[in-house]
Design a protein that fits this description.
Layout: E1 2-3, E2 6-7, E3 19-25, E4 30-35, H1 37-54
Antiparallel strand pairs: 1-2, 3-4
Length: 59
């Protein structure tokens, strides 16, 4: 629901478990990027996989 081009908190149902992963502030607003728990775990898994490759012996 929009009220004068503003989102209301009732529009955000289902996002309670999402984490803020990035933020940026302008003179007018605070912008945030959020991720759900599945996205966070996928990022962590990919990061662990890349980190383990960097520890692999070089040929």
């Amino acid at each position: 629901m929009f009220l004068d081009n503003v989102l209301t908190f009732s529009d955000f149902k289902g996002y309670e478990d999402w984490s803020v992963v990035s933020s940026a502030r302008t003179d007018e607003v605070l912008k945030v990027v959020v991720a759900n728990p599945t996205m966070i775990e996928a990022y962590k898994s990919a990061f662990r996989a890349v980190a383990s490759l960097s520890r692999a012996p070089r040929l």
